[in-house]
Specification:
alpha+beta, SH3 type barrels, 6 strands, globular
Length: about 80
């Protein structure tokens, strides 16, 4: 069952199921390793409402507004 990234639990492995942003946002996320079907771990919430994600060996900062636009699914 997909949920919004902002509502996903910390320290869980997630799969990006869909991004609701525009094409330039999707390209930027893909360059950072976050593509549809990509597994990552949500590691931290920031003070401003953003999230930090571990994608492979990289850490990616996701802003508060973008975290409301990304749909993820927990990996069982």
């Amino acid at each position: 069952m997909p949920l919004i990234l902002r509502d996903a639990p910390l320290r869980s492995t997630l799969v990006l199921s869909r991004g609701l942003g525009d094409c330039s946002t999707a390209r930027r996320l893909a360059a950072l390793g976050l593509r549809e079907g990509a597994e990552f771990q949500l590691t931290q919430k920031t003070a401003g409402g953003g999230r930090m994600a571990q994608v492979g060996q990289s850490r990616v900062a996701i802003g508060a507004e973008l975290s409301k636009q990304l749909l993820v699914e927990p990996v069982s």
